[in-house]
Amino acid sequence: MDLASLCNFNKTLLEEKIKAIINKDPNLPEHYREHLSQLLFSSGKRIRPIFTVLGSYFGNADQDQVYNLAAIFELIHTASLIHDDIIDKAELRRGKPTLHTIYGTTNALILGDYLVSLCCETVSNFEFEEVYYNDFHLTDLCRSEITQQRLLFNFDITYEDYITKTKNKTALLIAASLLGGAKLAGVDEKTLKKLYIYGINLGISFQINDDILDFTQDTTHLGKPNGADLMNGNITLPVILALKDKKIKKHIRNLSKQSPIEDFNYCINYIKNSKWIKKSHRISRKYLKKAKKAIKGLKHDKKALLIEILDMLDKRTH
Amino acid sequence: MMNNPYIQYIENYIKENTPLPFLKREDKYQEMVKALTDHNLTDYIELVASCYSLFYTGLDYHLNAYDNPEHLPYAILLGDFISSYVAEILYKHQQFELLKTFAHTTKEIMLNLLNGTSDDNLLVNIINTLKSRCNNGFS
Question: If you count residue pairs, one on A and one on B, with CB atoms under 8 Å apart, how many are there?
Fold first, then answer.
């Protein structure tokens, strides 16, 4: 069973809501709308919308409104993907040509900006300001991306730096999505706090797993070569841990933008088959335990669902 | 403009965290100061003129990103950072009507850019929003 089925998530309703938002603007040229639709309706994980809906289960909310908010979170995520693809020089996204390869850098950037403004306009139209802006700080996400940019190929990055970056880059958005749904449902402050801590810790674990999969998952599933993060200079947890390993640390520290692919592959293969992957898994699990601890005192029949999700993430293979 | 805390924050952030220069839009800042003064809306100068000016700073980073391939990632991320900062400070000041105006009008500006035109009603729409608020008895 996948996360969407476990949470009884209505994918069709989400897609209707997304369509309603992007179709309401008559001035958007059809070819742009078509390419945005391709990006929005290809096989994304829908992690953030699922957590918005999950949050709403802890109170009473109009599901129509919950899915409107969930659609906004998915759209803002998609806008960030358009810009990420330009930064990463990615040619494909979910098997389709990326927007900057079709329209050029500037138009793709503006299309991403259009999507962000459209999201903010929709937030205003639905009067979602308090549930959207209060916990969802895009500036934190951007700051974290700028820091990541500054620290590319910097092998002195600490475990603490990595966790802070991971929290701002991934976990805050997951926690904000969960809280958004819960706030719409009128959930009390005490429960909101528990859900927030749950979301942050789950999000950190989720990102650590993503960083492990970057090394271990087969390339067909991954859609990119193993170790792509390291090749881009992005230092993730398995690398930080491997830097303690006498056998490989010199090789890793010698890597730079100009290094030949063989040097990268040597380090990537070493890390992939090393104990540092297991150690990364243990750290990921530690955050899942923290997430579980956060909801210990929660009395709600949907608490079991939160625990099932943690178990599912622990076994995640893609 | 130099003493504006919001603009100073962004300028310092850019200086400390990126290799890019701050693309100051003094012209836009002064344009908004003049419009607010002309309409007796001077209470809003610090917040509104900075948001207005910063919007164009953020947009400039995106419009010029392609011309500076070495620092393209920074230009993209800074543009995103500044536009989200504008939304964030408007929210912190509970300026929901202005947030709506900014969102709607900046969306129209992006659409115009995508359609190859340069129509821009941001100043007019901001002034109209503030004037209609005053006419409704809110300060």
Answer: 113
Residue B111 has pLDDT above 60, yes or no: yes
The reply to whether residue B83 touches residue A121, judged by beta carbons under 8 angstroms, is no
ipTM, 2 decimals?
Answer: 0.95
Structural element, H or E, at residue A104? none
Looking at domain A3-314, its CATH class is mainly alpha
CB spacing of A109 vs B110 below 8 angstroms:
no
Gap from B61 CA to chain A (nearest CA, Å): 10
pLDDT tens-digit profile of A119-137?
A: 999 999 999 999 999 888 8
| Confidence tier at A93 by pLDDT (50, 70, 90) | confident
Query: Domain extents for chain A?
Result: 3-314
CA of B96 vs chain A CAs: smallest distance (Å):
7
Residues in chain A with CB shorter than 8 Å from the CB of B102 are 120
**Axis-axis angle for helices A189-216, A261-272 (nearest 10):** 120
pTM: 0.93
User: Alpha helices, DSSP H only, in chain B?
Assistant: 5-17, 26-38, 50-64, 72-92, 96-114, 122-135
Please list, in sequence order, all residues whose beta carbon lies within 8 angstroms of the beta carbon of residue A86, skipping any fewer than 6 positions away: A98, A100, A105, A108, A109, B72, B76
Interface of B with A (CB under 8 A): 17-18, 59, 62-63, 65-66, 72-74, 76-81, 83-85, 87-88, 91, 96, 99-100, 102-104, 106-108, 110-111, 113-115
* pLDDT tens per residue across span A163-200: 999 999 899 989 999 999 999 999 999 999 999 999 99
